[in-house]
Fold these 3 entries.
Entry 1:
Amino acid sequence: GVGAGKADAANAFLFCVVAILLTYPLVNLCGAHVLGAGDGDEPTLYPLFLQNLIYAILYLWSRCHPEDMVEVNFIPLQGKYLPFAHIGLGLCLGSRINEAVHGCAVGHIYWYLVEAVPATTGKRVLVTPQLLEDFFGGVDDGDGRDEVTAAHRAAAMGDVAFLERLAGSVGGRANLVAEDVNGWQPLHEAARGGHVGAIEFLADHGADLDARTNGGLGGSPLWWVIDTHGQNHPAFIRLRELGAVSIRPGEER
C-alpha cells in the first residue's frame, strides 16, 4: 500500500515535494476562489512549504493506519479522521487552514494514483523507481517482506496470475496469508478491491475468510466489501457463498 517500505516512503515523500512545488503557482493563481485569500496582499499559500508537506504526510499516514486510535486534544478518534480533525479544529479556532488543505489534497493525489487507480483498473500508473528500490534495498528486511508486499499489491489489483506465480515460488505460498504492518492480509486487499477471482484464489490457498485487520480488532474481508462496494457487489455475493461473516471494526467476537 502507500509507503509499504523505505523505497515507497521515499517515493511518496519526493512525489509530495514535487507536487507541492508544481501546484503552488496554480493554487495561488486560482485558489482565492476555493481556499480564499487572506486580507490585503496575503497570498493564498505562503511560499514556505513545511506545513503543506507535513499535512500531505499526515494524510498518507491516515490512509495507511485508518483504524489506529489517536487523540486530538484528548479526544480519541480513528487514524483516518486525523487530518480532517486538525483542519476542523483550525476552523473552529479561526486559524489559517490553506496550507493544510493543500497538503491533504497532494497526499490524496498520491494515494489515488498508487491505490485507487490500480484497485479499479488493474493498472499501475505510479510505481516506485528502481533507483529508489536499489538505494533502499526494496522492502526486504530478511523475513520476506518484499514478497508479502507483492502479494498484497497483486491482490489489490486482482492480479491472479501473479498470485499463482507467487504461490509456486519457494516460501511464496505462506505470503498469500501473511499480514502487513497493519494486520491486512492479501484477502483484505482483494475484498476491498472487489476482485472475485483473487478472493477465490486466496480462499483456495488457505486464507481465513473471517480474518480481521489491525491485530484482530479491525474489519473482516466481507465487512470491507460491504463498506467499499455495498451488498450488491459480486465480491459480497461470492464471499457469502464461501461462508464468510461480516465483522465490523471494534466488534467483539
Entry 2:
Amino acid sequence: AFRNMQWLRPADDPAVAAWKKGTTGFPLVDAGMRELKTTGYLQQNLRHTVGQFLVETLGVDWRVGEEWFHASLVDSDLAINAMMWQHQGLTGVSQWLIGIDCHPVRHARNADPRGDYVRYWVPELAELPMKYLHCPWEAPVEVLKNAGVKLGETYPERLVHDVDAQRAAFLALAQQCRRAAPKECFSPDGCDLLSLPSEPSPLRMERGIWALTERRIRDGPQSGGKGAAKGKGKTNRDARGDAKGGIKGGKGTKQSEMDSVKVETPASSPYTRRWQRATGA
C-alpha cells in the first residue's frame, strides 16, 4: 500500500544531517541524538521520540533512520531494528507507533521534567530557566541573553515551527497513498496486507501477512477496505523497558504510563557503563 509513498525530504537533506548530529533546534530530540552518537545507546522512550520526529515531523523515509540506528547502536539487532522502524514508517506488521504522541515539547515535559537530561547533553542551554528549556524559542530576548543563548548561533533555530501540522501532513500523505493502492493490498476490514516472497512460504498465507493497521490510518475511503474494524489498531501500547536492537516497545502500558518513564542520564545507564567498559572510554 505504501510502495509509492512520497517522502517530503530525501536522505541527503540538510534536515537529516541535523537530526543525526543533534542540531534540530528541539532540545529533547537533540539530546537523544547526541547521546546516541556519543555512547552508542539511547533509552527506549527516546528511541520513539527521535524516530517519530524523523519520519512524521520531517517526512523522511523510515529506512534512513533504520540505517543510522543500525550503524550507531551498540545493541543493534538487524531484525528488531528493521521491524520497529517499519512500524514507525507505517509499513510493518503493526503501526501502533503512529498513535503515540512523542511531541518534542509536550513529551519532554514528562520525560525530562527537571531538565537534567537536556542540560547534560545540550549544555549550551543549561542556564535557561526550566520554563523555556524544552522550547527556547519561546524565551524572551532578555532571558536568552542572560542564559548565554543566541538562537541561530549558540544553538540552532528549530527545523519546523508547527510539529502537529507536519505530523498531520504526513498522515494525510500516507492516507492518500493508501487510497491509490489496489484492493489486493488490503484485508476485508481495511488492514494492510504485507506481500510475501514469490517462493513458497512456510507461513502458508495466500494473500500476505495481515498487519495491525491503526484506525487513524484506515480512516477515510480506500481501495481495499470497508471501514475500520472493531478491536484492531489500538493505540495503548508503550515503550516500556530497555529493549535491545532498535526502536522497540512492550505491550500493555497506557500512554499516561509511557509518559511517566523518565530518561536516564549517562552516569546511571547500564548500557553506557557497559559501553565504557568495552571501549575503555
Entry 3:
Amino acid sequence: KNRDLDYMMKSVRGLIDTNGEIWSACKEHTCFVPGKFTPGSCVKMKRICFKEASVLKKSNQLTISSQKTLYVHDFGTPPLIPPCLSSLFLLDPQSEGEVFPCYNAYLRKAGLLNDGVLVSFLTQLQEHLEDVQIFVGRIETWLSEPASTTQFLNELFGSGVALIEDVDASMCKPGGKVSNGATCIHCGKPPTSHIIQNWSDEYRCQGINKIGLFYVPAPTTLLTSNTALVRGQMDVTFDLCTDDGKEKLKTFVAFLKLYG
C-alpha cells in the first residue's frame, strides 16, 4: 500500500514539475492580466509569426518580402481544481500575474490526510493535472508553430534572413497613429476596443491601467532580384501558414534562381 502511495505521489509531483516547466516557457507570452488572475478567467496568448510572403515586381526589380504579424489567441479557461479537492484544503492565494496555483504547496497539505483519503485525493489531483498538461501543451504547440516557418524561410533564402524577436515598445505606436487592423501588445485588442482620450493620442486598454501600444512591424526583405524573366508588373502572395503555400513559394524561388 505504501508503495502505491509512493508511486502516486511521484507521479503527481512529476506532473506538477512538467506542467511548471512548460508554463514557465510560455507565460511571458501571456496578454497582460491586471492584478491576480481570477479562476474562471480566460487565458490569452500572443505570438509573432510570418503569415505571408509577397512578391512584387516593378520594371525589372523583383522583391520577395514578408511582414511579421502579432497574433492573439484565446485558449479559454484553464482547468479548475474540482470541488472534491478544493473542499478539503484552501488553495494558497496566487501570486500576481500567475495563472495557476502553487500545486506543490497544495500537495504538501495532503500529507495531513490518512492513507485511505490520500489515495482518492491523489487520484483526483492527478486527473486534474493531466487536464492542465493538455491545456498548457496546446499553448506550447501554438507558440512553437512560428519557429517552423522561420526555419523554412532561412533554409530557402539564407540563414539569418528571417528572425522572430520579442516585441518591445520600440516596435509599437500609440493608437492614434495606427490602422484598426493593428493589435495591442498589452490586451491583444484593436484600437477600437480601447478608451480614447480626446485630448491626446492615448488609447487606454479597458479594465487595466495601460496605454495601448500597437505592434507595427517593418517588412522583412527576403530576396531582391533584377530579372526580365517575368514580364510586366507582378503582385503575388504566398500563404506561409500552410504547407501548400510554402511549397508554391519554394517552387517559385527555385524557378527564379534557375532561369532568372
